[in-house]
């Protein structure tokens, strides 16, 4: 008994003591969290809720209250994070997408339980602390997108359980260490966009689990180690933009699960091994800008999943194998800049998915096939600089999806077929220059109201420049030079704004911008000249005849007018009588649902007169409700059928977006799905877009310079985008045309829905469809084909330049091949001062304005740096701009 009681006393004492210990440790974690909360200004972490395990971002182990997971990602945080290393039980730490500076604390080496560490998308500096190498349990280490320097420390080889190692977009140098091949569990290894040099370790092939290896944009040398392909799990291999040499090994065919191979912009030599055909899962093969040679192997045709094949700028010869017709998934075939010849491969044109065909700068010597767009949905047809003969077939008009048509520098003959006017989507360029085309320009070209660049120079075209071309409302660049045109150049701003070189070499042309004036010439069309002559003749031959001819002419003209009117009526009736078939619709704002009528909305988008503007992915209409309320309706261009297939998912995404509150974002207030079209509803603001505000103000005589107003707009747009990045949304089409100004000229970033609806990483979009707007596309997109946050910063930089210069992102005035970004960046080379770049109507108003504009110009230059890693983050752009405003 006494023994027992003694024991029980002892036990009780022991238990309460251990409880005390537990409680104390428990309090320790809470104390640590309170201190961290104070340091990082996390207002939600306070003592009000006694159980810290319920605080946001925290989870604890179930049987005690030790903090096991800490997720503070996406919070704009800054401050000292050293204290986190006191949370000794931590297994999972995510601090990504914040604003942390300074060194990564070496005390993190004390978090011995840690399995997941994500410090990516911050501004950590210095070197990678070697202390991290003791984290034996670490499975994922992500320190990408920081400012880390120096070499990859050898101590990291202690991370034996590592599965994911992400080091991309830093300033790391030295070589890729050999011990990397001893990390036998490694499945993801990325170190792209660094300054790594030396060879890719030979034995990387021993890492049997490796699925993804991405080392692009470094200074790596040597060849691809054969052993890499011995690993049967490698799916993605990206080595673009290095200094790699040697042959592509035959062993590449051993790796059956490879889906993406991107080795462009290196110095590889030799041919492509036939074994490529053994990789049945191959989706992307990109090997442009190397020294590869030989014929394009027909074995590619066995890769039935191939979506993109890019072999541009190499030394390939021979023809495009007809077997390529088997590639039914192919979206892009890019073989420009080689020595290929023969016919344009008609077998490929059968592919329904073919989106881009780039054969330019080769020796193709066939004709343009009549079947050119029977089945394909081509958006890019690039055939310039070849030896293509024959006429442009009328069937070209079937290519209604084309965004760009390049046929320049060939041997094309005959007339320009009027059917080109049916290609209403044509917007990037129509280039028929340097051929042997003759005859008159078809008036139908005037229907191309989205076209930015038209080049028909160096042909034998004749007749007048039809005034119907004034329908080309988006035109910026034109070139009519070296033809046989005559008569007056029509009065049309894009024509008169062009340099006279655009019209030179045509003996019969007169009027601005040429110096030859049209005096004495009847400026009107051929038909009017004829009737003028008829009248003259009539006067000569007696009044009676004159009267009857006059009546005939009059009757004829009246009938024509009536016919036209009747035609218009028919189309109008079609539009209004056909009741649109509404499949789904919703209004998210409760007190508005009464006032909104879906039928009216759908009908409004069928009338061109309601069109407000258009972008890469959508057209915007104005819709007036029976209630008198006016809406802005965005009609998505369903370039991608999948858009419709994923309708329910899209609707969910739109509903989610409607809950995204920010002063500088245009939120959807509802949607309508009718037939195969999706309409997004927004509030209507009569002030229009930023593009209209900037570029239409040029012509306004009552323009009042307002730099503070412009700066506020710049800050607002930056804030909207920073918020989007904060919630991990990448915008797919940033342009001044997608910024709407509300009644107070507060900017609202629009077209955010498309970023969710067309997310390329989810494979719901065709690859070319996501490039964004002409002039705003970041240069790296050409080889990464990914829109990224730094890519968004670039596009924003273009908008900021527009605000500062009041110039368009693409303008012929900059010179050939030069856009706004290049023009500004090369100002000093041209010997111009920054002041010559700025809009002088603003910069000359006051010394203070000029100073602020120069500071903003510096930011715009940073944003548009050609190296994505050098661009600031959006949130930093906001801070820098705000600083300008507050000084
Ligand atoms: C915590 O409680 C105090 C006192 O009750 C209160 O003043 C404070 O606002 C609360 N903090 C938060 C973030 O709820
Ligand atoms: C808590 O549970 C984990 C397993 O979930 C176990 O490993 C650990 O020993 C337990 N700790 C205590 C104090 O019971
Ligand atoms: C953070 O605080 C620790 C002391 O707690 C100090 O040693 C360290 O230098 C600080 N780090 C930074 C980046 O200020
Ligand atoms: C890490 O832990 C060791 C002992 O376990 C201790 O001496 C050291 O001070 C700790 N480091 C930091 C930075 O907390
Ligand atoms: C960092 O890498 C890990 C492991 O690959 C990954 O799970 C995580 O999503 C990455 N973080 C970010 C912000 O991309
Ligand atoms: C790496 O960069 C650091 C800091 O910029 C420099 O001191 C060092 O010499 C570089 N090392 C190599 C191998 O290039
Ligand atoms: C890799 O591991 C092997 C055997 O475990 C060992 O002999 C070799 O030294 C290690 N290599 C490196 C670079 O650490
Ligand atoms: C791999 O490709 C070569 C050359 O095309 C072919 O002879 C061989 O049969 C293929 N092997 C397999 C396993 O498919
Ligand atoms: C096209 O060029 C190839 C190679 O120069 C030549 O053999 C062939 O005869 C040419 N075809 C035509 C139709 O000119």
Strand fraction band? Answer: 15-25%
Unreliable stretches (pLDDT < 50, length at least 5) are 1-26, 522-577, 759-770
Q: Structural class of the helices, strands and pairings? A: alpha/beta
Helicity range = 10-25%
Describe the sheet with the most strands: 19 strands, mixed
What is the CATH topology assignment of the domain at 687-887?
Transferase(Phosphotransferase), domain 1
Q: Using DSSP, what is the number of strands?
A: 41
Radius of gyration: 32 Å
Describe this structure in words.
It is a single-pass type I membrane protein. InterPro entries: Kinase-like_dom_sf, Leu-rich_rpt, Leu-rich_rpt_typical-subtyp, LRR_dom_sf, LRR_N_plant-typ, Plant_LRR-RLKs, Prot_kinase_dom, Ser-Thr/Tyr_kinase_cat_dom. The protein is an alpha/beta fold and 887 residues long. It contains 17 helices and 41 strands. Among the domains are: 151 residues, Leucine-rich repeat, LRR (right-handed beta-alpha superhelix); 151 residues, Leucine-rich repeat, LRR (right-handed beta-alpha superhelix) (Alpha-Beta Horseshoe), CATH 3.80.10.10; 112 residues, 2-Layer Sandwich (Phosphorylase Kinase, domain 1), CATH 3.30.200; 201 residues, Transferase(Phosphotransferase) domain 1 (Transferase(Phosphotransferase), domain 1, Orthogonal Bundle). Helix content is 24%, strand content 17%. The strands form seven sheets. It has a 19-stranded mixed beta sheet, with no helix packed on it. The N terminus is likely disordered. One 2-acetamido-2-deoxy-beta-D-glucopyranose binds next to loops.
């Amino acid at each position: 008994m006494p023994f027992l009681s003694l024991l029980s006393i002892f036990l009780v004492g022991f238990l309460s003591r251990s409880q005390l210990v537990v409680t104390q440790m428990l309090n320790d974690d809470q104390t640590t969290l309170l201190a961290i909360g104070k340091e990082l200004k996390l207002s939600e972490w306070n003592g009000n809720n006694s159980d810290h395990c319920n605080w946001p971002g925290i989870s604890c182990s179930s049987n005690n209250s030790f903090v096991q997971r800490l997720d503070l990602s996406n919070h704009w945080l800054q401050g000292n994070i050293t204290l986190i290393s006191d949370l000794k039980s931590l297994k999972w730490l995510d601090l990504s997408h914040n604003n942390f500076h300074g060194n990564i604390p070496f005390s993190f080496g004390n978090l011995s339980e840690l399995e997941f560490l994500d410090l990516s998308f911050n501004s950590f500096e210095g070197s990678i602390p070697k202390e991290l190498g003791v984290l034996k349990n670490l499975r994922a280490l992500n320190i990408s997108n920081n400012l880390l320097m120096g070499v990859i420390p050898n101590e990291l080889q202690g991370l034996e359980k590592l599965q994911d190692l992400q080091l991309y977009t830093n300033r790391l140098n030295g070589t890729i260490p050999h011990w990397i091949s001893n990390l036998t569990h490694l499945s993801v290894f990325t170190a792209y966009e660094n300054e790594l040099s030396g060879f890719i370790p030979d034995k990387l092939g021993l890492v049997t689990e490796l699925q993804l290896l991405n080392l692009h944009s470094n200074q790596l040398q040597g060849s691809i180690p054969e052993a890499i392909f011995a690993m049967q799990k490698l799916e993605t291999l990206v080595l673009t933009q290095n200094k790699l040499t040697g042959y592509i090994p035959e062993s590449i065919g051993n790796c059956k699960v490879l889906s993406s191979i991107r080795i462009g912009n290196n110095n590889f030599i030799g041919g492509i091994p036939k074994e490529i055909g053994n990789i049945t899962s191959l989706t992307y093969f990109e090997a442009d800008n190397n020294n590869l040679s030989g014929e394009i192997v027909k074995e590619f045709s066995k890769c039935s999943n191939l979506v993109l094949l890019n072999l541009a700028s190499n030394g390939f010869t021979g023809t495009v194998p007809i077997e390529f017709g088997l590639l039914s998934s192919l979206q892009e075939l890019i073989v420009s800049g080689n020595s290929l010849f023969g016919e344009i491969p008609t077998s490929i044109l059968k592919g329904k998915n073919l989106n881009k065909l780039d054969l330019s700068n080769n020796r193709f010597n066939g004709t343009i096939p009549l079947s050119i767009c029977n089945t394909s949905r081509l958006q890019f047809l690039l055939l310039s600089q070849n030896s293509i003969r024959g006429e442009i077939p009328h069937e070209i008009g079937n290519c209604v999806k084309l965004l760009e048509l390049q046929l320049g520098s060939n041997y094309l003959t005959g007339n320009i077929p009027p059917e080109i006017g049916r290609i209403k989507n044509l917007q990037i360029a129509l280039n028929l220059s340097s051929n042997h085309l003759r005859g008159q320009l078809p008036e139908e070209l005037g229907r191309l109201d989205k076209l930015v660049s038209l080049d028909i120079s160096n042909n034998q075209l004749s007749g007048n420049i039809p005034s119907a071309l004034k329908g080309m409302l988006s035109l910026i660049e034109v070139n009519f030079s070296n033809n046989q045109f005559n008569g007056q150049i029509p009065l049309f701003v894009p024509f008169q704004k062009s340099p006279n070189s655009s019209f030179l070499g045509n003996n019969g042309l007169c009027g601005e911008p040429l110096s030859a004036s049209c005096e004495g010439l009847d400026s009107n069309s051929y038909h009017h000249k004829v009737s003028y002559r008829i009248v003259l003749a009539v006067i000569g031959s007696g009044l009676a005849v004159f009267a009857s001819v006059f009546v005939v002419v009059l009757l004829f003209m009246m009938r024509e007018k009536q016919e036209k009117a009747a035609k218009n009526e028919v189309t109008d009736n079609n539009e209004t009588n056909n009741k649109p078939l509404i499949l789904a619709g919703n209004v998210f704002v409760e007190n508005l649902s009464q006032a909104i009528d879906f039928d009216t909305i759908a009908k409004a988008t069928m009338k061109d007169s309601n069109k407000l503007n258009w972008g890469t992915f959508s057209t915007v209409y104005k819709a007036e409700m029976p209630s008198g309320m006016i809406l802005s309706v965005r009609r998505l261009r369903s370039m991608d059928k999948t858009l419709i297939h994923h309708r329910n998912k899209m609707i969910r995404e739109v509903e989610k977006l409607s809950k995204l509150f920010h002063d500088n974002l245009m939120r959807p207030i509802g949607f309508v799905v009718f037939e195969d079209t999706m309409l997004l509803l927004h509030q209507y603001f009569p002030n229009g877009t930023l593009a209209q505000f900037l570029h239409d103000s040029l012509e306004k005589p009552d323009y009042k310079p307002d730099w503070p107003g412009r700066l506020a707009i710049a800050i607002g747009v930056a804030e909207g985008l920073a918020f989007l990045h904060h919630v991990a949304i990448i915008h797919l089409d940033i342009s001044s045309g997608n910024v709407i100004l509300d009644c107070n000229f507060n900017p609202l970033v629009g077209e955010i829905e498309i970023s969710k609806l067309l997310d390329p990483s989810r494979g719901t979009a065709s690859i070319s469809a996501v490039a964004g707007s002409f002039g705003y596309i970041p240069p790296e997109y050409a080889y990464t084909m990914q829109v990224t946050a730094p890519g968004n910063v670039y596009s924003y930089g273009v908008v900021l330049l527009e605000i500062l210069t009041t110039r368009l992102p693409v303008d012929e005035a900059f010179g050939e091949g030069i856009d706004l970004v290049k023009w500004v960046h090369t100002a000093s080379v041209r010997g111009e001062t920054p002041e010559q770049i700025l809009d002088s109507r603003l910069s000359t108003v006051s010394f203070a304005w000029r100073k602020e504009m120069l500071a903003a110009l510096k930011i715009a230059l940073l944003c548009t740096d050609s190296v994505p890693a050098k661009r600031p983050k959006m949130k930093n752009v906001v801070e820098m701009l705000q600083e300008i405003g507050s000084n």
